[in-house]
Amino acid sequence: MKKESQKSGLARLLEIAGRRKALLFLSGALVILHAILALTPYFIVFYILNALLSGENASQVIDLLAWALGAVALSFALMYASGMASHIAAFNILYELRCKIAEKLGNVPMGYVNNKSSGSLKKILADDVERIETFIAHGIPDTVKAVALPVICLIFLFVIDWRLALVSFIPLLGVIIFVPSTMGTEESKKAMEKYHNSLEDMNAGIVEFVRAMPVMKIFGQSATAFTKYSGTVYDFQEHVNKWTQISAPLWGMLMSFLNNALLPVLALGVYLYFSAGLTLSVFFLFLVLGVGYIRPIFALVSLSTQLVIIDHGVKRMDEILFDMDELDSGSDSLPQNFSLKFDNVSFAYTEDNFVLKNVSFDVPQGSLTALVGPSGSGKTTAGQLVVRFYDVNAGSISLGGVNIKSLPVEKLMENVGFVFQDNMMFYQSIFDNIRMGAKKSLAEVIAAAKIARCHDFIMQLPNQYETRFGDKGVHLSGGEQQRIQLARVILKDAPVLILDEATAFSDPENEHLIMDACRELMQNKTVIIIAHRLSTITEAEQVVVLNQGKVACKGTHIELLASCPLYHKMWNAHTRAQEFDIKKCV
Ligand SMILES: Nc1ncnc2c1ncn2[C@@H]1O[C@H](COP(=O)(O)OP(=O)(O)OP(=O)(O)O)[C@@H](O)[C@H]1O
């Protein structure tokens, strides 16, 4: 069930702050005290002026000046303490948010994460969360200050002279009416939303552009030829222009209005001075504070724009936190053994477009089943369903007689090892790349690396197992990276294995080494091997041939050669490819 937060804006930010709220309130309280003390020198100057005009002696003026200096010093100290409190709260919130999002992403089916562009995830995890931190650290104290200063100021001014105070209030009234009715319109909100969507698309385009650079260079393409990149940059520019066109005139009007806020005070002040006995000190006080209190409100206007931006980021973050369904593991059932069963499995990535249709086959414990079939027939998808990258739409997959949806997710992951088509290496030591967070000793990692046939090339690296993958001058071939992947799975020692194109990146020498490693890895395990090179699976107990998402035939290699025309055709194509000689083509 969705646990969606109904709140937005500042209320949602305070909800996000959770147990750090107390620190934020402390920061706000300190800012109010700071605001009072920051105004104190102005009040003192007012009394000094009064004193001078009424001919008081110098010692009293010096006392008042000393008080003013003390107030300034204390107000700085309070501002510092408030900033400390808000920053400590903000960095803790930032840390907790990132952990929460990462934990959530770890609990949703991996396929949904893969389908989100890395650019949009980067924007949420880095930019949006960072903005929340900045707003909490600076924006919340600034907002409190922007409200507290004018309120304190106006109260004081009303006490001194209610007529001038009333006129001083006019600009504030203008802001209160003007801003929501212009900045909060549907058009303005839509322009802002489009700006954010286009920013996200541009992020995704940039990430893809950087990834595609080597291919583009080979084909002599420029950045503008990479339409996804240039298109998103163009869209972004268009939306920024549109947003600016909508907001610039409104901002211009607001700013000129605020910049001329002095005029009504000046006019009434002059009138009262000449006709109603207004003292010079009161007049000066209003000329300084009667419009000076507007300054913090400028900040409030820009803070409200920031809040709209943050709100968009928070919504995207909430989509991850609340809208994505987590993998549910119904009961605490444990598998009885390590056999696998596909029972009438159907699956679609997008509605009704089924890529697997009523797929059924059994993989008895300790046996090897090969999934083969033309490209796009659904082999990888079938393998990924076993580790719940996605959940099946119909039918079921069971491990040891228990539907995998009913198994605790950790139990499933503990029991299944997966070698992916793509190699995923991390910017960390080879030792850490192999043990993948497990508490394993160097001796255990070396033993796994030896079985995976990667120990020898690791020993050639500058710092052997401590060499950091990705450092300058450290390069591993695709086949070598694939053997590191095998070492990971060997170390994990799971009873069930899914090997997806384990020899995908290999030359004949590597393929031989990888197959040797796989043979050792597969001993006494339940294995599904997804393979294009049919010569690697002839010894499998069972070969399942998939075609357009359906099981076309099942049997051993020999049986299928005799009874399955599709398999026969694939085998012939494979053997022809093995005998292929480029010289015969030219
Ligand atoms: N993330 C995805 N979103 C939408 N459709 C997908 C996704 N991944 C794969 N497909 C589609 O599902 C179908 C089956 O793909 P799959 O990768 O499982 O086939 P395959 O038999 O493993 O292919 P190959 O041998 O080329 O690796 C294809 O039509 C593919 O386009």
From TrEMBL:
Domain of life the protein comes from: Bacteria
Cellular component aspect of the GO annotation: plasma membrane
Topology of the protein relative to the lipid bilayer: Multi-pass membrane protein
Keyword Disulfide bond: no
Protein name: ABC transporter-related protein
Domain ABC transporter, residue spans: 340-573
Keywords: ATP-binding, Cell membrane, Membrane, Nucleotide-binding, Transmembrane, Transmembrane helix, Transport
Keyword Cytoplasm: no
One Pfam family, short name: ABC_membrane
Transmembrane segments: 21-44, 64-95, 166-185, 250-274, 280-310
GO MF terms, alphabetically ordered: ABC-type transporter activity; ATP binding; ATP hydrolysis activity; ATPase-coupled lipid transmembrane transporter activity
Main location: membrane
Span of domain ABC transmembrane type-1: 25-307
PROSITE patterns listed in its UniProt record: ABC_TM1F, ABC_TRANSPORTER_1, ABC_TRANSPORTER_2
Alphabetical list of InterPro entries matching this protein: AAA+_ATPase, ABC1_TM_dom, ABC1_TM_sf, ABC_transporter-like_ATP-bd, ABC_transporter-like_CS, P-loop_NTPase, Type_1_exporter
Compartment list: Cell membrane
